[in-house]
Design brief:
Elements: H1 2-10, H2 21-27, E1 31-35, E2 38-43, H3 45-48, H4 55-61
Antiparallel strand pairs: 1-2
Length: about 60
């Protein structure tokens, strides 16, 4: 909550590493999915978790 308040009040861009999908979905606007040290895909949460979203993300989330 603190980081989000600072981001909003100062118009900052924040790069965070999160390991829980729930926390990421509540915190971020854009996401990068990293596997084996590489960014596999990126974009808004809704696109990444859509029925036709990227397979690596869907597999990781069990969708």
């Amino acid at each position: 909550a603190r980081v989000d308040a600072l981001r909003r009040s100062h118009g900052l861009t924040v790069l965070m590493t999160l390991h829980t999908p729930e926390e990421a979905a509540q915190t971020a606007d854009l996401f990068a999915f990293v596997a084996n040290g590489r960014v596999e895909t990126s974009g808004p949460w809704g696109r990444l978790t859509a029925k036709d979203g990227p397979a690596p993300v869907r597999r990781f989330l069990g969708l």
